[in-house]
Each structure stands twice: as structure tokens, then as C-alpha cells.
Design brief:
Radius of gyration: 23 Å
Largest sheet: 2 strands, antiparallel
Shape: globular
Mean pLDDT: 81
Low-confidence stretches: none
Length: 314
């Protein structure tokens, strides 16, 4: 099994596109960080962050007085005011005034990682069929299940590598831009009881990164399943990318139906639970994880059934 995974990794990393994707990811992170710095970050340095925070508190207090505001938005504004006032009282800079703000913003680029790994996964199996090299794999003593699993694991390993590259490069670049003085700053949030909680910033950011990668795993598994079922790289990559781009729109359009909470796209963003903003009221982290596990099992079961039972030697 280890040899099979090594073989699949060699196929991935000897291609120029693999490293081009990594380079694009770093460039995208650098561009995002610099844009945020020139637009926001440089205006929060020194004592300016205190003035900005006071203005934000005043703005939020005014917004709370607007009639017809949804309870969820009202609750979010009240929590923002509480955290902002806590920062002023304890002389703690907001995240957008430190390196952590840009680092956590960079977690949004996990979308790019998902796109790149979907391309790799979608082509991994279907490409063997189109080139005819699938026959060379099947004459090995390894079972079809191991061959399938090795390709899947190798694709996910590439995603992990891109995630580490994104995080490390973001820390280094934003550390140089903002300075590393805020390294030990805690992350603050309001608990369900209305109390400010301080947690480790590093753990919070990695939690955000890792929860965002849940969508990567699900879309890659989907692409892999389509690739196994239809033997088409274009179909696997195209459908998966369409799902990535249109999933939220579809979910929003169907949000008035109670059953919409069982849709894949309604549960794929687990980081929303960290911010107490689930797709529907009453949805919990446990519920979303359960739904995702069911989809995950179905996708993998279909991949296994089709690849192991169908005559792929033809």
C-alpha cells in the first residue's frame, strides 16, 4: 500500500502543473495580504486602532437602533460591541491591526486549494483510462481497492501540502508586514452565557483552516467518485467545480424548505459553527458532521462499487 501511494505521489509531483498551482497559491496569498495591508492594516497602526475601534462601537450602537433588524444580526452586533469594548479596556489590538487578521483572511484561499486538488483528483483515475495505463495498474498483485485508495490518499496528501504552504507563507509574509509582536495575542469571543472568553490564537486559526478543509475533502471525494463512475476527467472536474461555485446559491434558493438543512452545501462550512452562525437555527456542529459523514460514505461506496465491479480492463 505504501509503495502504491509513493507511486501516485511521484505521478503528481513530477508534473509541472503541481508546482505551478503551489506558486499561484502563494502569489494569491501575497496579493490578498498586501491589498488588505494598504487598504486597512496600515491605518490601524500606532494608537489609530483605538480611534477606529471607538468609531466602530458607535456605528454598531447606532445600527442596533434600526427597526426590523433580525435577531441573529442584532445578537452579532451586540457581541461585536462587547468584544470591541473589551479590547479597549485591556489595550488589545483588534485582529486587523496585527498579523493574525491577514492570516485568518488567508484561510479563505482554501477555496483555491480545493480547486487545485479537485483537478488532481478528477484526473487521477479517469486519466488512467484515457491514456490506457489503467491496464498496467491492474496487472499488479495489489487489489483494486488498494489502487483506488492509494490515488485518493495521494490527492488528499497534496491538499495537506498546499494547506501547510498557505499557512507557513502567510505567517512569514504577514509577520514581516505587521511585525511578530502580536504573536501571543489571544482570540476573543463571547460565550453563550455572555462572557468574554480568551483562547489560543494559533489553535483558533488552525481550527478555522482545518474546518475549511472539510469542504476540500468533500469536493475531492465527489470528484473522485465522478471520475470512477464516468471515467471522464472533464466531467469530474467540471461538475465538482460547478458544485463549488453554485452550491451556496442553490442552498440559499432552497433555504425556505426545512429539508434544505440536509443538503451537502448547507453543512459543508463547519467554520460557521465557530461563529455561532449555522445555516439554519438549531443546526449544531454534530448535526453537520453527521450529514457530511453520510455523504462521504455514499461517495466512497459508489467509487468502490463501480471501480471494483465494473470491467475496467477493456
Amino acid at each position: 500500500m505504501v509503495n502504491l501511494i509513493q507511486n501516485e505521489n511521484m505521478k503528481i509531483y513530477r508534473r509541472t502543473r503541481t508546482w505551478v498551482m503551489a506558486g499561484i497559491l502563494i502569489l494569491a496569498m501575497a496579493a490578498l495580504s498586501l491589498v488588505i495591508w494598504f487598504d486597512v492594516g496600515r491605518h490601524t497602526q500606532g494608537e489609530q486602532w483605538k480611534i477606529n475601534t471607538e468609531q466602530q462601537i458607535t456605528h454598531n450602537q447606532t445600527a442596533l437602533k434600526e427597526p426590523g433588524m433580525p435577531e441573529s444580526m442584532k445578537k452579532q452586533l451586540e457581541q461585536d460591541i462587547q468584544v470591541q469594548q473589551y479590547r479597549l479596556d485591556h489595550n488589545m489590538k483588534p485582529m486587523n491591526a496585527t498579523m493574525w487578521g491577514n492570516i485568518i483572511e488567508s484561510s479563505g484561499l482554501v477555496f483555491l486549494i480545493t480547486l487545485f486538488v479537485v483537478i488532481v483528483a478528477g484526473d487521477s483515475l479517469a486519466g488512467e483510462f484515457s491514456s490506457g495505463t489503467i491496464k498496467l495498474l491492474l496487472i499488479r498483485p495489489a487489489s483494486r481497492l488498494k489502487i483506488l485508495l492509494s490515488k485518493y490518499v495521494a490527492a488528499l496528501m497534496y491538499g495537506v501540502l498546499l494547506l501547510v504552504i498557505l499557512f507557513v507563507s502567510s505567517v512569514l509574509l504577514n509577520g514581516m508586514i505587521y511585525g511578530f509582536s502580536g504573536w501571543d495575542q489571544p482570540f476573543m469571543k463571547v460565550s453563550d452565557t455572555g462572557v468574554i472568553q480568551e483562547t489560543n490564537m494559533f489553535l483558533h486559526i488552525w481550527s478555522t483552516y482545518l474546518l475549511n478543509t472539510v469542504s476540500t475533502i468533500m469536493y475531492v471525494t465527489m470528484a473522485f467518485m465522478i471520475s470512477a463512475v464516468f471515467r471522464s476527467s472533464a466531467m469530474a472536474i467540471g461538475i465538482s467545480i460547478f458544485a463549488m461555485l453554485a452550491g451556496n446559491t442553490i442552498t440559499f434558493a432552497l433555504s425556505r424548505y426545512e429539508w434544505s438543512k440536509y443538503l451537502l452545501f448547507a453543512n459543508i462550512d463547519l467554520s460557521s459553527h465557530l461563529n455561532n452562525a449555522p445555516f439554519k437555527e438549531g443546526m449544531t456542529m454534530g448535526f453537520s458532521i453527521t450529514v457530511l459523514l453520510i455523504y462521504f460514505a455514499i461517495f466512497n461506496l459508489l467509487s468502490w462499487l463501480v471501480f471494483t465491479k465494473r470491467d475496467v480492463a477493456a
